[in-house]
């Protein structure tokens, strides 16, 4: 920590400079820096909220219709901004390698060419949708406020709406297989379906109305939820009981990502964690005070991570 001492003379110079600035210095504006930023593929103003890998391409989506695409093996980014500027919040790769991305405007965006072109489908709901999932049969699912689940069986041409009638947002939806699904959300909401999402059973809520911003279940009994304060809870009995795991952070955790037997977590203040031998370990990342929202493993040694203010970089794993 540095201590700055400003004497009266320096204060006078500072005030004079400030008054000069506020009273209208008419020097020509230098826009070179602005132009340089606009020419970049990844910009400091980008809020990058989702990463997906489809075949040999990696796709990143964010606010203001930003879509970044690159070959997996070289990370040379191409930038496009969709004309209607949808504010993307999530992206998922379907089993057939197509991509679906959810925007805050209650639209689902679909790409069959690794993110080069997109078609939109309006999702007919008044609820706020926050996450998207693709089923094993390539069905589309989006979840959000008032425990709402929207699903389409015909690639977005029509939608079915279902609510668990709980005044809670569903933040995560996961298929364990074709028939078994798990949903988690606000106020400790925990629900399960055993018939492909047609009917749901509300389970005992996660204790203390814990709001899991993300969850991951490796099977029907073993799972993890994470949220504010760097808190990660785990269950080995299908949610009947939960245990708190020690983490090296107090920053919110926003997302889990699993690759093979490896489980990663992304959070605020540049946080990337990995579970190693039952313990959560912080991975080395740039010292940046921004949130990290998503990531995907590119190869055995690299994890691509995305987040706020143009954060897009690889982490050695």
Q: Could you please describe the fold and organization of this structure?
A:
The protein is mainly beta. It is 7% helix and 43% strand. It contains two helices and 27 strands. The strands form seven sheets. The chain has a four-stranded antiparallel beta sheet with strand order 1-2-3-4, with no helix packed on it. It is globular, with a radius of gyration of 22 Å.
Radius of gyration from the alpha-carbon trace, in angstroms: 22 Å
The helicity comes to under 10%
The average pLDDT score comes to 91
Measured between the Cα atoms of the first and last residue, the distance is 31 Å
**How many DSSP helices?**
2
List the uncertain runs. 1-27
User: How is the quaternary structure best described?
Assistant: single chain
**Overall 3D form:** globular
Q: Care to count the β-strands? A: 27
Order of helices and strands: HHEEEEEEEEEEEEEEEEEEEEEEEEEEE
The class by helix and strand makeup works out as: mainly beta
List the keywords.
globular; 27 strands; 7% helix; disordered N terminus; mainly beta; four-stranded antiparallel beta sheet; single chain; 317 residues
């Amino acid at each position: 920590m540095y201590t700055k001492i400003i004497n009266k003379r320096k204060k006078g110079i500072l005030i004079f400079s400030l008054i000069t600035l506020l009273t209208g210095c008419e020097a020509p504006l230098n826009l070179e820096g602005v132009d340089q930023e606009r020419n970049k593929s990844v910009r400091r103003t980008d809020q990058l909220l989702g990463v997906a890998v489809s075949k040999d391409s990696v796709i990143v989506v964010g606010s203001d219709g930003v879509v970044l695409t690159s070959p997996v093996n070289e990370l040379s980014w191409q930038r496009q901004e969709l004309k209607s500027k949808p504010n993307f919040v999530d992206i998922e790769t379907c089993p057939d390698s197509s991509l679906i991305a959810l925007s805050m405007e209650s639209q689902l965006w679909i790409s069959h060419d690794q993110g080069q072109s997109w078609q939109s489908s309006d999702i007919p709901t008044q609820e706020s949708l926050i996450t998207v999932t693709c089923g094993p049969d390539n069905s589309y699912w989006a979840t959000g406020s008032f425990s709402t689940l929207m699903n389409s069986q015909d690639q977005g041409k029509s939608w079915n709406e279902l609510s668990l009638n709980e005044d809670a947002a569903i933040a995560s939806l996961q298929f364990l297989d074709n028939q078994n699904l798990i949903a988690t959300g606000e106020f400790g909401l925990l629900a399960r379906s055993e018939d492909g999402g047609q009917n749901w059973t509300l389970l005992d809520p996660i204790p203390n109305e814990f709001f899991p911003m993300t969850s991951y279940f490796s099977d029907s009994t073993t799972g993890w939820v994470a949220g504010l304060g760097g808190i990660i809870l785990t269950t080995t009995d299908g949610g009947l009981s939960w245990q708190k795991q020690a983490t090296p952070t107090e920053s919110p955790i926003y997302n889990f990502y699993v690759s093979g037997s490896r489980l990663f977590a992304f959070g605020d203040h540049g946080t990337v964690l990995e579970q190693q031998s039952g313990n959560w370990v912080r991975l080395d990342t740039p010292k940046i005070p921004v949130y990290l929202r998503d990531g995907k493993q590119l190869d055995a040694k690299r994890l691509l991570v995305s987040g706020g203010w143009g954060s897009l970089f690889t982490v050695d794993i």
